């Protein structure tokens, strides 16, 4: 799949588009920050550039990858979400990263749910996992809200991560879980909605 063939996905609030050079500054700032500590960061300028080049190249090599999350109205970018399977990854992963200053608004949930539906419905994936640092509680909570469950038997990337296995397509289709995800996304899209408790992505 060529870089220009990357599909554009849409949700109520968001547009998911392939990574472009102009999106790099926010990515660089995030991976230079404490926010990236659960994803191998903080990274120096060279490491961040190489990782962003890998984000673009992953689409060319694997035929799938991570989208940049854009606001439908303003075009502002909020982070990235999509598929990820570089060398050493045992299985295709559904992954996400949200820029620090926009966390807690449900963007990761909305984008990741849409990306997963694309992989299941359009690409024929029969499942996926998320590899998460065991100390990354916000990502673990998000994986659980997506219906993923800890799989202690699955191979990890390097032994320092835990594996959360997403429900298969048939386990999601027309279920209470899918309805609950849609309802939570709708709540975040409501301008009157104010999340209580922990800030969640």
Helix count, DSSP H or I runs of 4 or more residues: 6
* CATH class value: Alpha Beta
Assigned CATH architecture: 3-Layer(aba) Sandwich
How many separate domains?
1
Helix/strand/pairing category: alpha+beta
Oligomer: single chain
The secondary-structure element order is EEHHEEEHEHEEHH
Largest sheet: 5 strands, antiparallel
Task: Give a concise summary.
The protein is an alpha+beta fold. The chain has 6 helices and 8 strands.
Please provide a written account of the structure.
With 201 residues, the chain is an alpha+beta fold. It has one domain: Aminopeptidase (3-Layer(aba) Sandwich), CATH 3.40.630. The protein is 34% helix and 18% strand. It has six helices and eight strands, in the order E-E-H-H-E-E-E-H-E-H-E-E-H-H. A five-stranded antiparallel β-sheet has the order 1-2-3-4-5, with helices on both faces. Strands 6-8-7 form a three-stranded antiparallel β-sheet, covered by helices on one side.
Descriptive terms for the model:
Aminopeptidase, 34% helix
Topology:
Blueprint: E1 9-10, E2 14-17, H1 24-31, H2 45-62, E3 66-71, E4 77-84, E5 93-98, H3 107-121, E6 129-132, H4 137-145, E7 149-150, E8 162-165, H5 169-172, H6 176-189
Antiparallel strand pairs: 1-2, 2-3, 3-4, 4-5, 6-8, 7-8
């Amino acid at each position: 799949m060529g870089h220009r063939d990357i599909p554009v996905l849409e949700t109520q609030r968001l547009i998911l588009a392939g990574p472009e050079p102009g999106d790099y500054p926010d990515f660089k700032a995030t991976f230079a920050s404490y926010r990236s500590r659960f994803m191998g960061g903080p990274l120096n300028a060279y490491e961040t550039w190489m990782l962003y080049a890998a984000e673009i190249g992953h689409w060319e090599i694997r035929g799938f990858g991570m989208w940049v999350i854009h606001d439908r109205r303003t075009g502002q970018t909020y982070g990235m979400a999509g598929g990820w399977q570089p060398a050493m990854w045992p299985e295709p992963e559904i992954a996400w990263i949200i820029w620090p200053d926009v966390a807690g608004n449900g963007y990761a949930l909305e984008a990741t749910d849409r990306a997963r539906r694309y992989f299941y419905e359009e690409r024929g994936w029969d499942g996926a996992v998320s590899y998460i640092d065991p100390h990354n509680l916000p990502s673990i909570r998000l994986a659980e809200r997506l219906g993923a469950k800890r799989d202690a038997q699955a191979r990890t990337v390097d032994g320092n991560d835990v594996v959360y296995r997403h429900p298969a397509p048939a386990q999601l289709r027309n279920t209470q879980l899918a309805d609950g995800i849609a309802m939570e996304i709708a709540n975040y899209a409501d301008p009157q909605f104010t999340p209580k408790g922990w800030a969640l992505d």
